[in-house]
Design goal:
The complex is a heterodimer of chains A (about 110) and B (about 260). By secondary structure, chain A is an all-alpha fold. Chain A has 3 helices and no strands. Chain A is elongated. With about 260 residues, chain B is mainly alpha-helical. Chain B is globular and about 80 Å long. In chain B, α2 crosses α8, α4 crosses α5 and α4 runs antiparallel to α6. The longest helix of chain B has about 50 residues. Chain B contains 8 helices and no strands. Classes of the chains: A mainly alpha (about 110), B mainly alpha (about 260). At the A-B interface, α3 of A face α6 and α8 of B.
């Protein structure tokens, strides 16, 4: 299991370099890694953001079920909290967009 | 982002798209309010009724969060909210560009909020008292540290306001653009029309499924997100202003919370 993971990792790391070495392009070897990093980073950020928001919503729904009278205020607080949690994932999205679309960065 | 998003149909040469469509949003809002308020009646009907309901919503939100003294800031808050909502919804109309899908527009809104709440706080409490407010309810040796941390957290507020709105809008636009790319004439529908039997079956069914998915799920979700992000921007603006105008000595427990 571990050996196959290492093999996959080596393959992932070696493949873009090999492809670009054959290409001899001027783009630098780090551009393919930027695409990989954008994907993996966004996946991690989305997953952990989902865990955090799930905890927040679970507590809020619990509180609303116990105190239906305070549901509106709890909902407002929950939405604000969700926005604050979500903005952390949005930061990762912005970094991913910078990695994917901004051409001016000279990575190499 | 122009790599995958189609540019808007109407473009003014030499002027960036988000500026053009910011002007369009301004024209829409100005014409709407002018038409509604040109002939005010005691018993409102039609557009006047609609806009009064919208403004009453803003007022009740302000009353909930800031109390009655917050009604002084209704023009700032409601203008920001209506502009951001219009911009978000314009981003969903095919052929138009959403001004809030550009970092410059959202940064402008966030900077207005940043400058406004500091100005309001300094006017309300005096500059020195307002600066003391930054040091927080901690013992004297810790105050310089607290001051630096609070300044950094205040500087992070416009950044997070900017990036939250921008990221939500652009993320949604990219999602829609990718779905449309998969669905359109280069994708499933094009495959269905290509003439081969497999393409007609798979592409036809797949194209139908993506159309139903887009119309039935993605667009309502995007409309919800447009309203939600405008609501969150306005709500955070109100929290920042009420945090700036509250006296530091009266509520020592609430000054330490920071909404970034």
């Amino acid at each position: 299991m571990r050996r196959s993971l290492i093999l996959v990792g080596v393959a992932v790391l070696a493949f873009p370099t090999a492809a670009l070495a054959a290409d001899g392009g001027t783009g630098g070897w780090i551009a393919p890694f930027a695409v990989i990093a954008a994907g993996i980073g966004m996946a991690i950020a989305a997953g952990l953001c989902g865990l955090g928001q799930g905890r927040a919503v679970a507590s809020a729904v619990d509180a609303m079920a116990r105190q239906p009278g305070a549901a509106a205020r709890i909902q407002t607080a929950m939405i604000i909290g969700l926005a604050l949690i979500e903005s952390l994932a949005i930061y990762t999205l912005v970094i991913a967009l910078i990695l994917l679309f901004v051409k001016g960065i000279n990575f190499a | 982002m122009e790599a995958i998003e189609h540019p808007p149909i109407f473009r003014l040469p030499g002027i960036p798209d988000h500026v053009t469509y910011t002007w369009l949003a301004m024209v829409i809002l100005a014409v709407m309010t002018f038409v509604a308020s040109r002939n005010l009646q005691l018993v409102p009907r039609g557009l006047q009724n609609f806009l009064e309901v919208v403004l009453e919503q803003f007022q009740s939100m302000i009353d909930d969060v800031m109390g009655h003294e917050g009604r002084r800031y209704l023009p700032l808050i409601a203008t920001l909210g209506l502009f951001i909502l219009t911009g978000n919804l314009m981003g969903l109309v095919p052929g138009l560009a959403g001004p809030t899908g550009n970092l410059n527009t959202t940064a402008a809104c966030a900077l207005v909020v940043f400058l406004a709440y500091h100005w309001i706080g300094a006017r309300k409490q005096g500059v020195l008292a307002y600066l003391k407010h930054f040091a927080g309810p901690v013992p004297l040796p810790l105050k310089p540290l607290m001051f630096v941390i609070e300044v950094i957290s205040h500087l992070a507020r416009p950044l997070s306001l900017t990036l939250r709105l921008f990221g939500n809008m652009v993320g949604g636009h990219i999602l829609l653009a990718v779905i449309f790319l998969l669905m359109g004439l280069d994708g499933l529908i094009g495959w269905a029309l290509s003439g081969s039997v497999v393409g007609a079956v798979v592409g036809g069914i797949g194209g139908l499924v993506t159309i139903v998915f887009t119309v039935g799920f993605l667009y309502p979700l995007k409309i919800l997100v447009a309203f939600l992000q405008a609501f969150i921007f306005v709500m955070l603006t109100m929290l920042y202003i009420s945090g700036a105008i509250e006296e530091a000595d009266h509520h020592p427990s609430t000054t330490s919370r920071s909404h970034v």
